[in-house]
């Protein structure tokens, strides 16, 4: 399905903690595919190692899950913010800075303000990097 | 412990920190034993990564809480006599499970308590259990595996 041009604006995360840069495919009711290239320049601020930290890959998957949840339900209101509730993940490979990383998130269960999803992270040269299940929710910043 | 010993221990812990700034997800070691470490992280509006999480309101990223527990575990597993021990196998966490129980915001002080739970039979990895609390209230629970470190020095 062609993606609306405004869809990336649904993601409230901004650099240096934004790990999704493009939506590549959306199948309503099923899944969302996104991608991001982790620039070499960012490596120094994130551990300085040769490999992208695993928490950044999981966070990119979680950000994709937040996008899919909004596409399936309603956009976040200005007083709402997304919360990660639970993650279970298995890493099977690591990937170097500068590589294009692709995320796929699939719906397991989705409600108005929370969702349970499964996800996979891939990288061109390294194949499948990790598989995960995630629970995300929307919190109301107005309190009470 | 007097102030001199305290400072010496803190400097020693900082010297053994494996990660360059700003990728240091705890600020201080408050207790360390053979199989257990407690660290703290002070959360501030001026945290580098909080600028993007989010621009108009601030919630400390949950995955960085997990990174704080991982870094605490790495320090726990580092040889007390040298910082030159080597990892075996795939670097970083492979199996991880984490639950976030409430948001962490600027002004909070997170205390991480990480225990070396057990060595995984037949692998080169060890399992760790971690908990993050703010004012005694749990904010996150995690378990994860890390490569077993092999000390290459002859001390101790």
Layout of strands and helices, then pairs:
The complex is a heterodimer of chains A (144) and B (156).
Chain A: E1 22-27, E2 31-37, H1 40-43, H2 54-72, E3 80-91, E4 100-110, E5 114-123, E6 127-140
Chain B: H1 3-16, E1 28-32, E2 36-42, H2 62-77, E3 86-87, E4 95-100, E5 109-119, E6 125-134, E7 137-147, E8 149-150
Antiparallel strand pairs in B: 1-2, 2-5, 3-8, 4-7, 5-6, 6-7
Overview of the molecule:
The complex is a heterodimer of chains A (144) and B (156). Chain A is of the alpha+beta class. Chain A contains 2 helices and 6 strands. Chain A has helices at residues 40-43, 54-72; strands at 22-27, 31-37, 80-91, 100-110, 114-123, 127-140. In chain A, strands 1-2-4-5-6-3 form a 6-stranded antiparallel sheet, covered by helices on one side. In chain A, strand 4 and strand 5 form a beta hairpin. The longest helix of chain A is centred in the middle third of the chain and has 19 residues, at 54-72. The termini of chain A are far apart. The model of chain A has no long low-confidence stretch (mean pLDDT 92). Chain B is α+β, with helices and mostly antiparallel strands. In chain B, 19% of the residues lie in helices and 35% in strands. Chain B has helices at residues 3-16, 62-77; strands at 28-32, 36-42, 86-87, 95-100, 109-119, 125-134, 137-147, 149-150. In chain B, a hairpin with a 5-residue loop joins strand 5 and strand 6. Chain B starts with a helix and ends in a 6-residue tail after the last strand.
């Amino acid at each position: 399905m062609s993606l609306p041009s405004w869809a990336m604006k649904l993601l409230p995360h901004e650099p240096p903690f934004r790990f999704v840069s493009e939506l590549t495919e959306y199948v309503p009711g099923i899944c969302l595919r996104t991608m991001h290239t982790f620039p070499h320049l960012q490596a120094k601020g994130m551990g300085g190692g040769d490999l992208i930290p695993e928490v950044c890959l999981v966070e990119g998957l979680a950000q994709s899950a937040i996008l899919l949840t909004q596409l399936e339900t309603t956009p976040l209101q200005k007083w709402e913010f997304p919360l990660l509730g639970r993650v279970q993940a298995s890493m099977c490979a690591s990937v170097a800075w500068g590589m294009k990383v692709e995320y796929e998130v699939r719906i397991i269960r989705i409600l108005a303000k929370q969702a349970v999803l499964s996800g996979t992270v891939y990288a061109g040269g390294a194949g499948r990097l990790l598989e995960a299940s995630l629970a995300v929710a929307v919190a109301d910043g107005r309190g009470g | 412990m007097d102030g001199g010993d305290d400072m010496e221990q803190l400097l020693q812990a900082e010297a053994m920190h494996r990660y360059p700034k700003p990728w240091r997800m705890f600020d201080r070691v408050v207790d360390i034993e053979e199989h257990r470490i407690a660290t703290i992280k002070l959360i501030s509006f001026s945290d580098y990564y909080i600028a993007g999480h989010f621009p108009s309101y601030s919630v400390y990223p949950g995955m960085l809480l997990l990174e704080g527990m991982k870094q605490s575990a790495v320090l726990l597993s580092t040889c007390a006599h040298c910082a030159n021990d080597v990892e075996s196998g795939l670097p970083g966490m492979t199996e991880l499970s984490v639950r976030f129980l409430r948001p962490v915001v600027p002004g909070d002080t997170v205390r991480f308590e990480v225990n070396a739970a057990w060595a995984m039979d037949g692998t080169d990895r060890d399992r760790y259990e971690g908990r993050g609390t703010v004012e005694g209230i749990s904010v996150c629970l995690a378990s994860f595996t890390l490569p077993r470190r092999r000390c290459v020095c002859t001390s101790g």
